[in-house]
Amino acid sequence: MKKTTKLWAILIAAILLLAAFACSKPADKPAEPTQAPVAEQPTAEPVVEQPTAEPVVEQPTEEPAPDTSVTLVDMMGHEVTLEKPAERIVALTASDCEIVYALGAGDLLVGRGEYCDYPAEVFNVPSVESGGNTNIEQILALNPDVVVMSSMAQTEEQVKQLEDAGVAVVVNDAKDIAGVYTSIEILGKLLGRDAEAQKIIEDMQAGFAEIEANKLDGTQTVYFEVSPLQWGLWTAGKGTFMNEIAEMMGLKNCFEDLDDWAQISEEQVLERNPDYIVTITMYWGEGPTPEEEIMSRPGWENVTAVKNGAILNLPNNELSRPIPRLADGAKMLYDFVEQYAEALAPAA
Fold it and tell me: What does the alpha-carbon distance between residue 173 and residue 187 come to, in Å, rounded to a whole number?
């Protein structure tokens, strides 16, 4: 019995001990629901509305500006360059003046040499002293782009004065027909008249070709009197356009053995006894005409040309200047010779 009572006492003590322990243990916190961590989202940038792009309009490709510059080599071998064709030109020689007008560019001529006399409208252009008396101040006062001159009278110093003042200088110096063509080409290029220059040359060539196609037999002779007796006789020798024209029409130049333009004597003319005489002396309306003066010279009465009256006067420089009208002068001489050719031809 005691044993049983003891067991119950032990059992009750154990139960009380467990209860005390349970009461002393802190209560567990309620479990929080398990949840995946939420990633923090970046703050969205405000949407800025972009302007609508304008349609791209393709621009036309700009063409490069045309090159208007002019570069040429004159008859002395000097290279001349201008930014554009000349618009103000002074021509000191009669032949260059005439070529400018033949090119249809007379309105570009602002000055001329004092001896320029063809065509008639050239007299409306201011004249300047030229040749040995060339006046640079007069030329510069005309404000030219370019001055055209020959190599005969102007000096290197005068050329330099013009160039130092910003004026281009072109030298023409034609002595034969090829040189005339070159002069025309140079002025055509200088003035922007290339096509006109080519047309003039082609017309000259056609006129000369017609004469050469009907040339004489080369036995008859001609004497070119480019300066009359009262001023001292001068003639055209080989290397001149007069000599070339004689050859192309089948005439023999009495003085083809001389070079260029040459001074001669009366005795030389009488000795060579030409069949034809061509004079370029001007007639001023008083006294004997140039033909009459030649026919009345003492000692010339036995010259064939004088006996036959075969003397042609070409006073308008058709045959004495390096100009486009050379072809006209050649035709005048050819027509004149035809009048006498049959009578002067040697008997068969």
Answer: 12
CA distances from 345 to 279, 333, 338 (A): 22, 17, 11
Residue 190 shares a structural domain with residue 281: no
Can you give the residue range of the structural domain that contains 230?
216-344
Is there a domain that residue 18 lies in?
A: no
Same-domain pairing of 189 and 318: no
Q: For residue 131, what is the DSSP state?
A: G
Same domain, 270 and 337: yes
Residue 324 corresponds to which tokens in the numbers above? 């486009």
Mean per-residue pLDDT pooled into runs of 10, the chain (348 residues): 50 50 45 45 55 64 78 94 96 97 98 95 96 91 96 82 95 93 98 98 97 92 96 95 95 96 97 97 90 97 96 93 96 93 66
Considering the domain architecture, whether residues 157 and 258 belong to the same structural domain is answered as: no
Q: What single string gives the DSSP state of each residue in 193-255?
A: -HHHHHHHHHHHHHHHHHHHTT---S-SEEEEESB-GGG--EEE-BTSHHHHHHHHTT-EETT
Q: Is residue 112 included in any domain, yes or no?
A: yes
Q: Does the pTM exceed 0.85?
A: no
For residues 301 and 243, membership in a common domain is answered with yes
Separation between Cα atoms, residue 89 and residue 70, nearest integer Å: 14
Burial of residue 195 (number of CB atoms within 10 Å: 0-12, 13-18, 19+)? exposed
| 189 lies in some domain | yes
Total Cβ atoms within 10 A of residue 100: 27
Query: Looking at the 3D structure of the chain, how many domains does it have?
Result: 2
